[in-house]
Amino acid sequence: MVWLIIVFVLLFVMAPVMWLKPSPRQVRQMALRNGAKQQGVTVKMEPPPLHHFRGTMPAYRWHYPQDAPGPDFVLLRDSNASAALEPYYAGWRWRIAPLRDLPESASAPLKALLERLPQDALVIESTPYALTLWWWESQTAERFSTYLADVKQLKAALSGLSDQPVGKPLDSQNGVHHR
Fold first, then answer.
1. Helix residue ranges per DSSP H, 51-103
2. What pLDDT digit, counting tens, does each position of 6-36 carry?
3. Is the pTM of this model over 0.90?
4. What residues does each domain of the chain span?
């Protein structure tokens, strides 16, 4: 009977320690996010640009150079898009299409990336500031690293294709733009 009480007390003491231990999924996600951050990717939990979505989702963000902003667009995977949205390529639809058609130098790497992304990648968003991938992190860090070259090529191709012209600084003496 004393042994039973000792075992019960030990289990009672050890239970909180076991709850603090990260799960295998959390360990994989931490390795994935750390690997992405080492490659210059910003990772944040944010609400994605999905209709009727509550909560947050991992957002992997590649920033455009400040002097070469990117175009505005949002692509959704068919599984999370309305049938009313315009189809784009390989099961993806435009929620917000770019104002001008993307040149072949940008559309080819975008299409190649869309073909390779895992099924839990739901949104690709481009703003003047960054290219963002919204996904549920189903892959390992090693597998995710295989996408990095494609994303960097796409980011380079989209840099400078902003819908708005880059403003020139004002001349401090005359108040006129430099040309």
1. none
2. 877 777 777 776 677 777 878 888 887 888 8
3. no
4. 41-158
